[in-house]
Design goal:
With 76 residues, this protein is an all-beta fold. The protein has one domain. The protein has strands at 11-14, 29-32, 35-37, 46-48, 57-59.
Length: 76
Amino acid sequence: MTSTPPAGADIEIIDRNPSGTRDVLVPSAVRINGIEVPIPQDAKIRINDLSADEFVTVTLTLFARRITIAAEGDLT
């Protein structure tokens, strides 16, 4: 039995108000697989250990309208 490697999500962290006067980007929008998700204004986004041969992990806080925790067969 062979398993396929997990496919990671496409994460875009966007600064919509870039200023030439600051040295860092300030995230104002986040997209996951092309869909913008709402984030708190003061949210911290952590990007862990960038490496060419491994997946990158991202930790972020976002607003959720609904959270469902269930076995896959129970989702409707």
